Amino acid sequence: xxxxxxxxxxxxxxxxxxxxxxxxxxxxxxxxxxxxxxxxxxxxxxxxxxxxxxxxxxxxxxxxxxxxxxxxxxxxxxxxxxxxxxxxxxxxxxxxxxxxxxxxxxxxxxxxxxxxxxxxxxxxxxxxxxxxxxxxxxxxxxxxxxxxxxxxxxxxxxxxxxxxxxxxxxxxxxxxxxxxxxxxxxxxxxxxxxxxxxxxxxxxxxxxxxxxxxxxxxxxxxxxxxxxxxxxxxxxxxxxxxxxxxxxxxxxx
Length: 253
Known about the structure:
alpha/beta, Rossmann fold, 6-stranded mixed beta sheet, 4-stranded antiparallel beta sheet, 9 helices, globular
């Protein structure tokens, strides 16, 4: 009998994952035999020096990129062999994304961007979903900005709209790629506190790629990647502990 991801208490996992780019002499191994899971209801930070494979790992886990070898699951659905359409529908219904570059639609106002996942799914938010969106808008202080388009918003406001969009459908799993990279430190901390609350209060599983020790200190668990392999898997760390470990990795390299 095959053990499922749910049996293991995981929202997503990868097994024996390898990703190479190029061929022959020019081959680059971005990931080298990685097996890891993202635990349900937990906020996981994925850290590592530049070029360690952390963004590649997240993109494969999210179905945005395909592995060279190995398997990946979101929940109990193996995504490794899925076609583009099936993958798109799965991501739309079960996964939220927060990117460093916000990725908002410039022609839509803030509320239009927040409700975009419902429009793409060809449906209106239910009463329950509408209440959740109202709650997100309030907790993110976006009320006065709902009719503004992205170019009328500050970077912090745009990122808050992106987070509201990612959480609007209450996805099982949220992937955040350097979500505080373009924000000042106060706004960054607000964004991180919100992601932490989404996992703590709503049982959502969050996987965040970051190079910032302060951002990682908000997570329940910190995975460290080096040269395409997981080199450490640690419970909640202080920013100082994360910084010291990263420094040690760079010195060892």
